[in-house]
Amino acid sequence: MDLSQDQEHAELKVFLIFQFAGAAGLLAVLATALFAPKVYRHFTWLNFCISWLIYCISYTLLAFSGQQTRPEPPSYPLCLTQAVLIYAAPVLVAMTTFSLVLQLWFTLSNAVRPSKQAIQGNVWRNGFLLLAPYVAWLGFIIAMLVIGTRNPHSVQRAGALVYCTIKGPPGNITAIFVAAILLAMVVMDVYIGTVLFKNWRALRGSDHPGAIPFSLIVRVAIFSFVCVVGIGCAFLFLSNISFFAGNTIIALMPLIAFLVFGTQRDIISVWMFWRRR
Question: What sign for the dihedral angle of Cα 159, 165, 166, 172?
Fold first, then answer.
């Protein structure tokens, strides 16, 4: 085995370790939110965790198949499946993160309204927040599947062995769509921060049914910022600078999602059951 192969395998191990660590953490958080009676999360939060698990599975499909490092290329159906999924996965996580931000805005809007004007659950709005990410995801899956089947020679395993890709426009299409969603998300974050600042005295200590924990808003804002910087850097590195740096950022995102949203007090208290009295 020559040096380049050693380096490829070392980089692959880093990529997989981060992906599996993030997936394990998110799975634990999701299970806790679903089954622990003292932990409640809105469906947009649960959707967020599920989308990042799908993201991890998409990027590690070759590892599960056992075709990751073998000398011959992966089978075409498997390689096409993964290539399609990895171009659709960033769209899914961007949309579920944006849905989480929108839900925070709707909840905050209720909190600053008088109680009589507060808007309760809206079926159409909730349906959009729940289904829109998956509609966009499926749309990208279909589009990438068409591109991949029409150009089978463009479907191949990337040089660092980490995953399969489709040469050509798919990467740019995904990047443009994700960038647009992230831009809208940042605008919403700034708007939420402005409204929160202007109404802070009224909201602080309020028992309004629409009130939301300030810590959750901070966590969403932090993760939104990390998404913008991280995904932006990943696309930049993958374009022409460093595949290893870009892939490392891609692999770190689920782990960061877990660390930001899985370290809330009620979840940690469930895990630390031995400290209960």
Answer: negative
Ramachandran bin of 205, using left for φ above 0, alpha for ψ from -120 to 50, beta for the remaining angles: left
List the chain pLDDT tens, one digit each, 277 residues. 444 677 778 888 899 999 999 999 999 999 999 998 888 888 999 999 999 999 999 999 998 888 887 888 889 999 999 999 999 999 999 999 999 889 888 887 776 655 554 455 578 888 999 999 999 999 999 999 999 999 999 998 886 678 899 988 888 888 889 888 988 888 888 888 787 777 666 555 554 434 556 666 677 777 777 777 666 665 654 555 567 777 888 898 899 889 888 888 888 888 887 665 5
The CA dihedral of 26, 133, 229, 257, to the nearest 10 degrees, is: -10
Give the residues across from 155 on adjacent strands: 166
The residue behind tokens 């999360």 is 41
Amino acid at 109: S
Give the relative orientation of helices 214-236 and 170-198 as an angle to the nearest 10 degrees: 150
Tokens encoding 103? 């839900």
**What is the spatial distance between Cα 165 and Cα 66, in angstroms, rounded to a whole number?**
17
88, HSE (Cβ side, Cα atoms, 13 Å): 25
